[in-house]
Specification:
- By secondary structure, the protein is α/β, with parallel strands linked by helices.
- The protein has a single domain, classed as NAD(P)-binding Rossmann-like Domain (Rossmann fold, 3-Layer(aba) Sandwich), CATH 3.40.50.720.
- The protein contains five helices and three strands, in the order αβαβαααβ.
- It has a three-stranded parallel β-sheet, with helices on both faces.
- The longest helix is centred in the first third of the chain and has 28 residues, at 10-37.
Length: 155
């Protein structure tokens, strides 16, 4: 996290490679194997910043918009192979990565004030969406970005 005008340019490529390029290469490799098997499910990890602009995280925001775009592009192309490609977009989840934000009482209160559920998400909150998108019940769901955000986006 750093202001655009102060952040090092080297951060840009590292984040793009980690969050976007890896999705491209891994999804492509998985799809090759899934095609041999007659189908499959790919679930990418997007973000609330796949829908919003964010602040102080331009590379992360761009990469997560890209994840949403790749999810939709791959869904279009791979549907004929019986491969569904979707993504989960976690909201504010309690992780080591979000610890500094949670430690900032003012920012933490702002975030909690916007989440209708009134709490930070737990990693376990993501499980149900992943299980559903992996199941036969989701065979006709393709190119969807499932927000698991405690209601953040509807506020």
């Amino acid at each position: 996290r750093s202001p655009l005008l102060e952040g090092p340019n080297s951060d840009w490529q590292q984040v793009i490679d980690l969050n976007l390029s890896s999705i491209y290469y891994l999804s492509k490799m998985a799809a090759i194997e899934m095609k041999k098997q007659g189908g499959g499910k790919i679930i990418n990890i997007a973000s609330m910043l796949s829908f919003q602009g964010g602040k102080f995280v331009p590379s992360y925001t761009a990469s997560k918009h890209g994840v949403a775009g790749l999810t939709k592009a791959f869904a279009n192309e791979l549907a004929v192979e019986n491969i569904q490609v979707n993504a989960i977009a976690p909201g504010y989840i309690e992780t080591a990565n979000t610890a500094p934000i949670r430690a900032d009482q003012k920012r933490n209160d702002e975030i909690l004030g916007r989440i209708p559920a009134g709490r930070w998400g737990q990693t376990s909150d993501l499980v149900g969406g992943a299980v559903f998108l992996s199941s036969k019940a989701a065979d006709y769901i393709n190119g969807h970005i499932l927000a698991i955000d405690g209601g953040w986006l509807v506020r």
